[in-house]
Specification:
The protein is α/β, with parallel strands linked by helices and 289 residues long. It folds into 2 domains: 150 residues, Isopropylmalate Dehydrogenase (3-Layer(aba) Sandwich); 130 residues, Isopropylmalate Dehydrogenase (3-Layer(aba) Sandwich). It is 40% helix and 15% strand. It is built from 11 helices and 10 strands.
């Protein structure tokens, strides 16, 4: 956030409130009078740059929790979170795997993680999130796919689309080749797409993921329902680089973040690329409008 501010890449209408340990912000270059800071008050010493630590996880989660509760109280209009280390959260005893899991528990809403490159009009929702790839087939079900499609449809309407056209990505190569290369398309995905259409959602497919991405990039649909993390992220990062953002749709407030990871290898070396943070803030302001 500070890097984006220094480079003048934040929207002019954005008035940031920095949330977290004041010691962390000072080390990042914050000085009194620059921006207001809401200190989480843990009193912990920032860990060394580029290392996964229990202290870092505790600081990170405290900042997220405080920011979310400020937004829920109306103190802030939107939350732009930084990337997190899931390993550090685990070391700190945080009982949530990621932002979305925590936000669902905190708000009681069916929050869904939307990954996007808004400047390229690329939008994806995930039917599963941060789970091992080997567990994805067993985690797919009709209800989960319908929920993801419904949230993406509602989210795209917030951006101004009246009747979003969605495509469901297949799991297996060639969409299973009629069961020859896998049965999930016939047993789970195609019935889920039919159910979505009966509910008035414009969901077609399942379409082989490579074909779905080509169609989406060419403007042939408005969003993709992807089945696992990398099915969305590979296409987005190939198209938009570090301009990918994460939007948790379905909440009573706006929450966005950069779509990249923690980049511990670049931490503290002055090489941080603030473009995704600026893109996330821009999306938040657009949604508020």
């Amino acid at each position: 956030m500070l890097a984006a501010l220094r480079r003048g890449s934040l929207p002019r209408s954005c008035r940031p409130l920095l949330v977290g340990e004041a010691s962390v912000w000072r080390r990042a270059g914050w000085r009194p009078g620059l921006l207001p800071v809401w200190d989480t008050g843990l009193g912990l010493t920032p860990p060394p740059f580029g290392r996964v630590t229990r202290v870092g996880g505790a600081m990170s989660f405290a900042a997220v929790k405080t920011a979310v509760r400020l937004a829920a109280r109306g103190v802030a209009d939107a939350v732009v979170t930084a990337s997190i280390s899931k390993e550090a959260w685990s070391l700190a005893g945080v009982p949530y795997r990621d932002h979305t899991e925590y936000l669902r528990a905190e708000t009681g809403r069916d929050a869904q993680m939307i990954l996007a490159a808004p400047q390229r009009r690329l939008w994806c929702v995930l039917a599963t999130r941060h789970i091992p790839l080997a567990r994805v087939p067993g985690a797919l079900n009709r209800a989960g796919i319908l929920s993801a499609a419904r949230v993406l449809c509602d989210a795209l309407r917030q951006t101004g689309l009246r009747r979003p056209r969605l495509v469901l990505c297949a799991l297996n190569p060639h969409a299973g080749e009629g069961g020859l290369l896998g049965s999930e398309e016939k047993k789970i995905l195609a019935p889920a797409a039919r159910s979505a259409r009966r509910l008035g959602l414009g969901l077609s497919g399942p379409l082989p993921a490579d074909a779905a991405w080509r169609l989406h990039a060419a403007g042939g649909c408005d969003g993709l329902v992807c089945l696992y993390h990398d099915q969305a992220m590979i296409g987005l990062k190939a198209a938009a680089g570090l301009g990918v953002v994460n939007w948790t749709a379905g909440l009573p407030f706006v929450r966005v973040s950069p779509g990249h990871g923690t980049a511990f290898d670049a931490a503290g070396r002055g090489r941080a690329d603030a473009s995704a943070t600026a893109a996330a803030a821009g999306l938040a302001i657009g949604l508020l409008r």
